[in-house]
Specification:
The complex is a heterodimer of chains A (233) and B (225). Chain A is built from eleven helices and no strands. By secondary structure, chain A is mostly helical. Chain A is elongated. Chain B has 225 residues and is mostly helical. The chains are: A mainly alpha (233), B mainly alpha (225).
């Protein structure tokens, strides 16, 4: 604990970096995956291809991806952008499936009635489909955020500082406290992102929390599917 | 461009294909760690997951634990466990076993949960014992998801074993960590390419096994899967 107080500025600066390195891929991944998922839901044949492409991308282990990206993009190996790009790829890979499921969960009858009520296709997409897909999108985004926050730390192995630096430094100095504080701080950052998303969900989707569907048989399947997609190194 | 050709040169250099630091030896090490840790973790986690899934006991706890594990950074767990238990091969492998358990557990219990309740009631009604229900009804129907758990655990371990080169484990991660130490990018890139290839091949094999498990189901009732 004394170590934390003595080095609070250092831990805090790493925490801020960690938040940035996580936030950018989460937001970028969401923005990129949204239209792809929407399109995939519209075109069932493409959907399969896009989803398998996503799951193949997600199969690539993170450390090798961090190393390969600078070779492809032409950045220096120490650039934090490598980590941001790699994590954005993972975020898109997970989020495309979620987005496609989310738009698929919108009842076709509702869409038809929106068209009948005179919504243009664009209006319908933004004002009917997107809000109704919201709860499933949010669930996907929460999975993305947890896994991204956890993966950022691996970047410290190739010299991209984050809370992960506390692990490499603590290990090299044989200093357990530093590692424990690093794990704790990472969990706090993950909870912080989750809280932000939940609050955003409450504010933007007030109807979602009002009527929770009773636990269906789909729930365990989904929780497992989410688990598969989360928690990769 | 030149980075690419240097990586290819590194990969095709015959000196990198023999000896203790050669690709075949590192690859075998990596596959060995993966097989060993996934096997140990399976022996622990699959029976436990089947028990949780069959009885429904401790389900909430299992869901919470497997969920919470996701939030923990693997590098932190790895360095923490190794530092706690002592540097060397075994502590790193213990850490890999720990990380392989949640996906295996989730695969087993959610696999059993995906089995239709009515099917289980019917099995009980025709006089099957609990053991028969588990082995002749639930496991065959859930097999695809159980294999899915093994698949996800395997990929997790392949990835973490790479990271574990940092805590002095052998395997393909050595190229990345050792290359980083001497700023030898082609070596790092070449090692990475081999790890990616290994992950994709293993994923493909497990995808095939899952399909096989799905096809060998006792009946072909359409499910939400």
């Amino acid at each position: 604990m004394t170590w934390l107080f003595d080095n609070f500025d250092y831990v805090w600066s790493l925490t801020v970096r960690h938040v940035w390195l996580s936030a950018v891929p989460i937001v970028l991944g969401f923005v990129i995956a949204l239209p792809i998922g929407w399109y995939a839901n519209r075109h069932p044949r493409l959907r399969g291809t896009l989803l398998s492409a996503g799951s193949i991308l997600y199969t690539i282990p993170s450390l090798p991806l961090f190393v390969i990206i600078p070779g492809i993009v032409g950045l220096g190996i120490l650039s934090p952008l490598n980590v941001v790009i790699a994590l954005t790829i993972y975020a898109v890979a997970i989020m495309v499936r979620s987005a496609s499921d989310a738009f698929g969960s919108v009842s076709p009858a509702v869409l038809d009635s929106a068209s009948a009520a005179g919504f243009s296709p664009v209006q319908r997409a933004f004002r009917v489909e997107l809000p109704l897909a919201g709860p499933v999108l949010l669930a996907g985004l929460r999975v993305v955020s947890v896994s991204t926050v956890s993966l950022v730390s691996v970047g410290s192995l190739i010299g991209v500082n984050s809370l992960g630096s506390l692990f490499t430094d603590g290990y090299n100095r044989n200093f357990m406290t530093e590692i424990v504080i690093g794990v704790g701080a990472t969990v706090v950052v993950a909870l912080f992102f989750d809280l932000v998303l939940v609050v955003l969900g409450r504010v933007l989707l007030p109807w979602a929390s009002a009527s929770r569907p009773v636990r269906s048989t789909v729930t365990p399947m989904m929780s497992f599917a989410q688990h598969l997609r989360g928690g990769r190194v | 461009m030149s980075v690419f050709s240097e990586t290819v040169d590194w990969l095709t250099d015959s000196t990198h294909w023999s000896g203790d630091d050669g690709i075949p030896h590192r690859l075998i090490e990596h596959v060995g760690y993966t097989a060993e840790t996934v096997a140990i973790a399976s022996v622990i986690a699959i029976p436990l997951g089947l028990w949780i899934g069959h009885t429904g006991r401790f389900r909430t706890l299992a869901v919470a634990l497997t969920g919470a594990m996701r939030a923990l950074p693997t590098l932190g767990l790895l360095t923490g466990i190794v530092l706690f238990t002592g540097i060397g091969l075994t502590p790193a492998l213990i850490a890999l076993v720990v990380l392989a358990i949640p996906p295996l557990l989730a695969g087993a219990y959610s696999g059993l949960e995906s089995v239709d309740r009515q099917t289980i009631d019917a099995a009980r009604a025709i006089g099957m014992t609990e053991w028969q229900i588990l082995t002749k009804v639930e496991i065959p129907l859930a097999l695809s998801l159980i294999v899915g758990g093994v698949r996800s655990a395997t990929l997790q371990v392949v990835a973490t074993a790479t990271v574990a080169a940092f805590v002095s484990l052998g395997g393909l991660g050595r190229y990345i960590i050792d290359g980083q130490a001497v700023r030898d990018y082609p070596q790092m890139a070449a090692g990475s390419v081999v790890v990616v290839a290994l992950a994709l091949v293993l994923d493909g094999i497990f995808a095939g096994l899952q399909r096989l498990a799905l096809r060998s189901r006792p009946s072909l009732v359409p499910t939400s899967a």
